[in-house]
Amino acid sequence: MATSSPNLSKKKLLLHWTLGGALLAILFIVVLSLFLANPSIRIMLVLVLASLAGAVTARFIYAIRSHKRLRHKIWLGFLTSFTVLLVFLSIKWKSLSDKGGQLRQEPFCIAGNLYYVGTNEMTSFLLTSAKGHILIDGGYPGNTDMIIKNIGILGFKITDVKILLNSHAHFDHAGGLAALQTASGAELWISEGDVDIIKAGGAGKRNLRLMNLLVYSGLVKYPAPRIDHRFKDGTKIRLDSIELTAHITPGHTPGCTSWAIPITDGNKKLLAVSIGSLTLIPSSLFGAKYDAELQKEFTQSFKTLRSLPADIFLASHASFFNMAGKIKARDTSTDRVEPFIDRDGYFNYIDNAEKKYQKEIKEQQLRQSKN
Ligand SMILES: [Zn+2]
Questions:
Q1: How far is the CA of 222 from the centre of ligand 1 (A)?
Q2: DSSP E strand stretches across the chain
Q3: Where do the domains of the chain lie, and which CATH numbers do they carry?
Q4: What does pTM read for this prediction?
């Protein structure tokens, strides 16, 4: 005798609440994601908004519950439009995520045989020689067309790229490596600490659980490239006249690498250093189990980077070394290389990163002592 049992009605109500809430939450996630460029901020923000949306929908469903016929029609209409919209937006979401909101950047020669071929924010550097080229970083998975086009604009060929390198194994720097490898036939060198993350297409033990979930779901997973060689701290990579040194600067990822590249420009001998990243991904979110490991890694990284006599300051993100400002300065400078010689900027970046890092660690210790 379950026709009008109050228990069943409660169950139905709960089902409507859950189903309605979940449907609208997903819709919100997809719609809002389209307007935000940075995948991590995008994910955080949409989750908060999705919870709010869920509550509102549940209230709506509760309100129409009492009108049985109307309720069925509304449900049918809602589900049909929702499904169509979801399919369309999911495709769009994936394609925009793959591009990471990147815009095209005109390629240029930084100094000597060192060229910029990346997007407006995700850097890619090309080192050229008579016997082939080396390319550092592949941006997001959807950035490879722009990188290949930039190499062509400079008069070089992607098929002449013999060696592929990486700053670190995150989606926004390693995402395009597989496609670049296919297009060039180049051999990829990966630092030992980042091998597992590269193989997993971005998933790693230190990622937030949510991030790993998104990687496994395929939404922010990048195609895993073939790893041809592994390297350690201090490894020198050589190709004809090019010789660059890998300095492992861990913390941001376990195998995060900064590249030291000697450049000859006219009669000038310069050292370009591209910093992997010194950004601490909030360690409290990793769980205390990695804290000691992280602290050791960051301490080593600050020391290593300070020991390098960098003339040209570069990094995995263009904003880290104010690339836009330097490109502007070149327009009015008589010397094309001079605006990129930035010894102070290099050390300031390390100092600021360390201050930020210390602040974060202190706050974290405070939180832990309160718990
Ligand atoms: Zn990163």
A1: 14
A2: 108-111, 114-116, 125-127, 133-136, 161-165, 187-191, 229-231, 236-239, 242-248, 257-265, 268-275, 312-315
A3: 6-99 (no CATH), 108-370 (3.60.15.10)
A4: 0.78
